[in-house]
Amino acid sequence: MTSILKVSEIQDPTNRNTALTIDTAGVVTGKVNESRQIVMGFTLTSGVSGDANPITGWANMATQLSGDGAGEITTGGSVSESSGTFSFPTTGLWKIEFNASLEGGSGDTTVQYNMDTTQDNSSYSSLIQVKESTYTSTAKAHTTMVGLLKVTDTTNDKVRFRQLSFGGHTTEGSTSEALTYVFFTWLGVAS
After folding, report:
1. Measured between alpha carbons, how far apart are the two ends of the chain, in Å?
2. Whether 101 and 29 share a structural domain
Protein backbone atom coordinates (compact mmCIF):
# COMPACT_ATOMS: atom_id res chain seq x y z
CA MET A 1 0.00 0.00 0.00
CA THR A 2 1.42 3.38 -0.99
CA SER A 3 0.81 6.44 1.16
CA ILE A 4 0.66 9.90 -0.34
CA LEU A 5 1.67 12.84 1.83
CA LYS A 6 0.06 16.19 1.32
CA VAL A 7 2.23 19.31 1.54
CA SER A 8 0.44 20.28 4.78
CA GLU A 9 1.55 16.97 6.29
CA ILE A 10 5.25 17.53 5.57
CA GLN A 11 5.37 21.06 6.88
CA ASP A 12 5.26 22.27 10.44
CA PRO A 13 1.78 23.88 10.57
CA THR A 14 2.90 26.60 12.98
CA ASN A 15 5.91 28.17 11.31
CA ARG A 16 5.78 26.54 7.86
CA ASN A 17 9.36 25.32 8.04
CA THR A 18 9.87 22.11 6.11
CA ALA A 19 9.77 19.22 8.53
CA LEU A 20 10.52 16.48 5.94
CA THR A 21 12.62 16.46 2.80
CA ILE A 22 12.67 13.89 0.00
CA ASP A 23 15.87 13.66 -2.07
CA THR A 24 16.07 12.51 -5.71
CA ALA A 25 16.61 8.92 -4.61
CA GLY A 26 13.39 9.02 -2.59
CA VAL A 27 15.08 9.08 0.83
CA VAL A 28 12.96 10.92 3.39
CA THR A 29 14.76 12.96 6.04
CA GLY A 30 12.89 14.45 8.98
CA LYS A 31 13.78 17.20 11.39
CA VAL A 32 11.81 17.55 14.59
CA ASN A 33 11.33 21.06 15.97
CA GLU A 34 14.63 22.21 14.48
CA SER A 35 13.62 25.85 14.34
CA ARG A 36 12.00 25.95 17.78
CA GLN A 37 13.77 24.34 20.70
CA ILE A 38 13.51 25.86 24.15
CA VAL A 39 14.93 24.40 27.36
CA MET A 40 15.63 26.85 30.17
CA GLY A 41 16.15 26.85 33.91
CA PHE A 42 15.74 29.45 36.64
CA THR A 43 17.27 29.22 40.11
CA LEU A 44 16.15 30.86 43.33
CA THR A 45 18.98 33.15 44.47
CA SER A 46 17.97 33.71 48.10
CA GLY A 47 15.91 31.92 50.72
CA VAL A 48 12.20 32.58 51.08
CA SER A 49 10.67 32.18 54.56
CA GLY A 50 7.03 31.76 55.50
CA ASP A 51 4.27 32.43 52.99
CA ALA A 52 5.09 33.81 49.52
CA ASN A 53 2.66 34.51 46.68
CA PRO A 54 4.39 34.45 44.31
CA ILE A 55 7.88 33.21 45.13
CA THR A 56 10.32 35.87 43.86
CA GLY A 57 14.10 36.10 43.51
CA TRP A 58 14.67 33.97 40.39
CA ALA A 59 17.67 34.23 38.05
CA ASN A 60 18.32 32.62 34.68
CA MET A 61 20.30 29.48 35.51
CA ALA A 62 22.47 29.62 32.37
CA THR A 63 23.62 33.12 33.33
CA GLN A 64 23.78 32.71 37.12
CA LEU A 65 25.66 29.39 37.03
CA SER A 66 27.50 29.72 33.71
CA GLY A 67 30.84 29.15 35.48
CA ASP A 68 29.57 25.74 36.56
CA GLY A 69 28.60 24.76 33.01
CA ALA A 70 24.88 25.54 33.15
CA GLY A 71 23.37 26.12 29.71
CA GLU A 72 20.13 26.48 27.81
CA ILE A 73 18.56 26.15 24.37
CA THR A 74 16.67 29.22 23.18
CA THR A 75 16.34 28.65 19.43
CA GLY A 76 12.63 29.46 19.69
CA GLY A 77 12.89 32.34 22.16
CA SER A 78 13.35 32.72 25.89
CA VAL A 79 11.05 32.28 28.86
CA SER A 80 11.06 35.54 30.80
CA GLU A 81 10.50 36.24 34.49
CA SER A 82 9.30 39.40 36.21
CA SER A 83 8.46 39.62 39.93
CA GLY A 84 7.99 35.84 40.14
CA THR A 85 5.75 35.57 37.08
CA PHE A 86 7.01 33.59 34.07
CA SER A 87 5.95 34.36 30.48
CA PHE A 88 6.34 32.17 27.41
CA PRO A 89 7.88 33.12 24.05
CA THR A 90 5.74 30.76 21.98
CA THR A 91 2.52 28.80 22.11
CA GLY A 92 2.43 25.03 22.45
CA LEU A 93 2.77 22.38 25.13
CA TRP A 94 5.26 23.16 27.90
CA LYS A 95 6.71 20.83 30.54
CA ILE A 96 7.38 22.69 33.80
CA GLU A 97 9.47 21.08 36.55
CA PHE A 98 9.66 22.77 39.97
CA ASN A 99 12.17 21.50 42.55
CA ALA A 100 12.40 22.96 46.06
CA SER A 101 14.94 22.38 48.82
CA LEU A 102 13.66 23.48 52.18
CA GLU A 103 14.55 23.76 55.82
CA GLY A 104 12.01 22.98 58.52
CA GLY A 105 10.26 25.51 60.69
CA SER A 106 8.68 25.31 64.11
CA GLY A 107 5.19 24.14 64.95
CA ASP A 108 3.33 22.43 62.10
CA THR A 109 5.90 20.71 59.91
CA THR A 110 4.07 21.08 56.58
CA VAL A 111 4.93 23.34 53.66
CA GLN A 112 2.82 23.58 50.50
CA TYR A 113 3.87 24.63 46.99
CA ASN A 114 1.47 25.52 44.19
CA MET A 115 2.04 25.96 40.47
CA ASP A 116 -0.47 28.69 39.64
CA THR A 117 -1.48 29.58 36.09
CA THR A 118 -3.50 32.29 34.39
CA GLN A 119 -5.05 32.45 30.95
CA ASP A 120 -6.16 36.06 31.23
CA ASN A 121 -3.01 37.63 32.81
CA SER A 122 -5.15 38.43 35.84
CA SER A 123 -6.80 35.67 37.88
CA TYR A 124 -4.65 32.69 38.87
CA SER A 125 -5.71 29.17 39.76
CA SER A 126 -3.73 26.21 41.04
CA LEU A 127 -2.65 23.72 38.36
CA ILE A 128 -0.61 21.52 40.71
CA GLN A 129 -0.01 21.37 44.46
CA VAL A 130 2.53 19.41 46.51
CA LYS A 131 3.12 19.22 50.24
CA GLU A 132 6.22 18.25 52.15
CA SER A 133 6.98 18.06 55.85
CA THR A 134 10.04 18.08 58.09
CA TYR A 135 10.52 16.64 61.55
CA THR A 136 12.37 19.47 63.30
CA SER A 137 13.39 23.06 62.66
CA THR A 138 16.84 21.95 61.48
CA ALA A 139 15.64 19.15 59.18
CA LYS A 140 16.02 19.45 55.39
CA ALA A 141 13.68 18.13 52.70
CA HIS A 142 13.20 18.25 48.93
CA THR A 143 10.03 18.16 46.86
CA THR A 144 9.19 18.22 43.16
CA MET A 145 6.15 18.96 41.04
CA VAL A 146 5.91 18.51 37.27
CA GLY A 147 3.14 19.81 35.07
CA LEU A 148 2.13 20.19 31.45
CA LEU A 149 0.77 23.57 30.41
CA LYS A 150 -0.87 24.32 27.07
CA VAL A 151 0.00 27.90 26.14
CA THR A 152 -2.37 29.35 23.54
CA ASP A 153 -1.75 33.07 24.09
CA THR A 154 1.75 34.33 24.95
CA THR A 155 0.36 37.65 26.22
CA ASN A 156 -2.06 36.18 28.75
CA ASP A 157 -0.87 32.63 29.61
CA LYS A 158 1.59 32.79 32.52
CA VAL A 159 2.77 30.71 35.47
CA ARG A 160 4.08 31.46 38.95
CA PHE A 161 4.86 29.49 42.10
CA ARG A 162 3.48 29.99 45.60
CA GLN A 163 4.43 28.64 49.01
CA LEU A 164 2.36 28.33 52.15
CA SER A 165 4.33 27.47 55.26
CA PHE A 166 2.37 26.24 58.24
CA GLY A 167 5.38 26.54 60.55
CA GLY A 168 7.91 29.05 59.22
CA HIS A 169 9.73 26.90 56.68
CA THR A 170 12.44 28.42 54.49
CA THR A 171 12.75 27.52 50.82
CA GLU A 172 16.47 27.54 50.16
CA GLY A 173 18.15 29.69 47.54
CA SER A 174 21.74 30.36 46.52
CA THR A 175 23.70 32.45 44.03
CA SER A 176 26.35 29.71 43.61
CA GLU A 177 24.28 26.53 43.14
CA ALA A 178 20.77 25.46 42.25
CA LEU A 179 19.00 24.52 45.49
CA THR A 180 15.48 25.52 44.40
CA TYR A 181 14.93 25.71 40.66
CA VAL A 182 12.46 25.40 37.81
CA PHE A 183 12.91 24.02 34.28
CA PHE A 184 10.83 24.99 31.24
CA THR A 185 10.85 22.72 28.18
CA TRP A 186 8.87 23.42 25.02
CA LEU A 187 7.55 20.04 23.84
CA GLY A 188 5.81 21.03 20.62
CA VAL A 189 2.66 22.30 19.00
CA ALA A 190 -0.36 21.43 21.15
CA SER A 191 -3.66 20.27 19.71
Report:
1. 29
2. no
